[in-house]
């Protein structure tokens, strides 16, 4: 849960699992955006993620998740 106006999360994903990660992230964001609850729509609106061009430790793929603005109080 974020208590500030914005937040960043780094996700380290095994190289052979990136398609799974991106599929789940897409489904989650879509579900939040389609929700009837305004707090869930707010979560989707401020959510962006990016795939780093540089490899991470042990060949992991790094995803940077940015929440700006965050939906305060939401998990």
Description:
The chain has two helices and three strands, in the order βααββ. With 75 residues, it is α+β, with helices and mostly antiparallel strands. A three-stranded antiparallel β-sheet has the order 1-3-2. The mean pLDDT is 88.
Give the gist of this structure.
With about 80 residues, this protein is of the alpha+beta class.
Key descriptive features of the protein:
3 strands, 2 helices, three-stranded antiparallel β-sheet, globular, alpha+beta, 75 residues
Q: Which strand order does the major sheet show?
A: 1-3-2
The tally of helices reads 2
**Mean of residue pLDDT values:** 88
Structural class: alpha+beta
Q: What percentage of residues falls in helices of 4 or more residues?
A: 25-40%
Sequence stretches where pLDDT stays below 50 over 5 or more residues? none
β content, as a range? 25-35%
> Secondary-structure element order, as H and E?
EHHEE
Could you say which overall geometry the principal axes of the C-alpha atoms support?
globular
Q: Biggest β-sheet: count, sense, barrel?
A: 3 strands, antiparallel
Any idea what the radius of gyration is? 13 Å
In whole angstroms, the N-to-C terminal distance is 5 Å
| Tally of DSSP β-strands | 3
């Amino acid at each position: 849960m974020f208590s500030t106006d914005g937040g960043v999360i780094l996700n380290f994903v095994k190289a052979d699992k990136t398609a799974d990660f991106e599929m789940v992230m897409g489904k989650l964001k879509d579900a939040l955006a389609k929700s009837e609850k305004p707090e869930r729509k707010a979560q989707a609106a401020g959510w962006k993620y990016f795939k780093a061009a540089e490899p991470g430790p042990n060949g992991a793929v790094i995803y940077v998740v940015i929440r700006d603005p965050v939906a305060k109080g939401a998990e």
